[in-house]
Amino acid sequence: QKPLCGATTISIPNRSTMHVCGTISGIILVLCAFVQGKKYFGFYQPNLSEAFSFSSVYQADTVADAVAAKRIYNVSSLLMVYDAFFTSAPSRTILRSDWEQAWAALAQQAEPLLANRTLLGFNLGDELILNCLAPVNLTVAADAVRRRFPRGRALLWYNEGTTPIALDRDSCGHSNIGFTIPTALDWFSTDLYHMDGLVSGWVSSNVRAFYEAHIFPRLAPGQQAILVPGAFGSDVNHYPNGTYVCNRSCYDTMCAHDAADFAQWANTDTRVAGVFPWNWNGCPQCNGSTWTPPHTCCMDELGTRVQPLTRAAWQRIASEWMRDD
Q1: Residue 289 banded pLDDT, cuts 50, 70, 90
Q2: Burial (CB count within 10 angstroms: exposed 0-12, middle 13-18, buried 19+), residue 261
Q3: 92: which strand partners?
Q4: Exposed/middle/buried for 98, CB within 10 Å: 0-12, 13-18, 19+?
């Protein structure tokens, strides 16, 4: 589940850079920069039978899922490696005591799949520091992946909530936690979601402003950002008194409008490697409202697949990126 966070509007001049990250068999592998128009794209929680034609990346939970995505749909994957490194303890995320053995076993399976492009790389997880993982342990995991697969052999991505990034605290009440973006990462992202109806320029004044203030200045050479737009809907987004703020059709119009703004940003900013919207299939257990407290009333998030305007917008945008690839 994604937290509902705000952002501070801060303007910082655009700074574009380009890096070539490595080679495979003498062929330049451009993982850290793209010519305008070329971007990685794939939904959170995709159903590839519906979205494969405009997905260049699949987020695979298992090796078997990644193999199937490549065999059936010819889509390469980022493999989730959370379970190899981390586990849940009461009210927090911790590093596994046996992570070295677990990672070694998974890396051995991944080796041939990276070579044949079934895998593009790995996803370390989502909002782990917000959920009270010690930042040093995120770096331990990222460094372990990078030691096994040097830069250029595998992409490494991680998404974090806005609170550790901007305020240096977690959801357990710890302050001054020492958050940093691990240098072993290729891609880093956060997610800020629009929930109160179409506002012209919202992406720029909220999401891009946050990236300019808190993420881009902290990226190391060779690192890029991923954008995580909200691409869902809700039938229950209301104030506690029942007054609707943004219903299903309102979300659809809003998210389709924002999709164009996210695409325009991605197309003109070499610091952005790709776009991974949340989410395709929907999330019934997720909070559909920024005003309704989670796990009390009215839980729903409707996926992109049932939001026709948003679905059409991202299909059009991603199809253009795939043609340019």
Answers
A1: low
A2: middle
A3: 89
A4: exposed
